[in-house]
Amino acid sequence: MQPNHRTPLQPSRGSGSGGSQAQDRRMAGNPSGTAGGSMNRASGSQAAVGQVQGKGKKGGKKKQPVDRLGQAVVSLIFGIFGMLLFLLSCIKLNMDSQYSYTTSPGTMFTIVLAYIVNTVGFILGIRARRSTKGRGTAIAGITLTALPFVLMTLFIGGAIILTFLLLR
Q1: How many Cβ atoms are within 10 Å of 82's Cβ, its own excluded?
Q2: Could you tell me the pTM of the whole model?
Q3: In which element (H, E) is residue 143 found?
Q4: Burial (CB count within 10 angstroms: exposed 0-12, middle 13-18, buried 19+), residue 141
């Protein structure tokens, strides 16, 4: 194989389409003209393009915070609905305990729906907390969903533990 002595600005003459700039940059630092030892072509070209653009492996630009305004708003909305569903499930549970010894399927559905809504709202609020926009909205969503989420997690966990203790 003949060594390739061309500069990075010269187009490649071997391919029919004139070659790509990524290949030219990759081969500029490599006198043999190959993709580079044990590296495959894709990772070799990505590393070369990143180094040409000034983004080396250690240096480079800092990662910009992601804008998660949508997640923050959804967290706030789920927090409001989750709080209302939590209060509704507490009221229904109280009414069921006064008039019968078992809970109705509607009460259980409300409890499960409130738990799911609060869990999703809490997770979305945590994810959107460090965003550039909507930070306050995300914190409000976390605040509204935290109390029902924790109380319902304790309630469901306690119900599971009591069920296994009663079955012994």
Answers
A1: 28
A2: 0.59
A3: helix 135-166
A4: buried
| Residue from 66, 64, 61, 78 nearest 149 by CA | 78
Helix (H, G, I), strand (E, B) or coil at 109: helix
Per-residue model confidence as pLDDT tens digits over 84-98? 999 999 999 999 989
What are the start-end ranges of the H helices in 9-134? 21-28, 41-52, 69-99, 105-128
Tokens of 59: 């240096």
CB distance 53 to 30 below 8 Å: no
3-state helix, strand, coil in the chain (%, to 5): 65, 0, 35
Q: Which of 15, 138, 3, 139 is nearest to 67 (CA)?
A: 138
Nearest to 24 by CA among 48, 1, 40: 48
Cα 108–Cα 120–Cα 163 angle in degrees, nearest 5: 35
Token pair 């907390």 is found at 129
What's the pLDDT score for residue 8? Answer: 58
What are the structure tokens assigned to 158, written together?
Answer: 């306690």
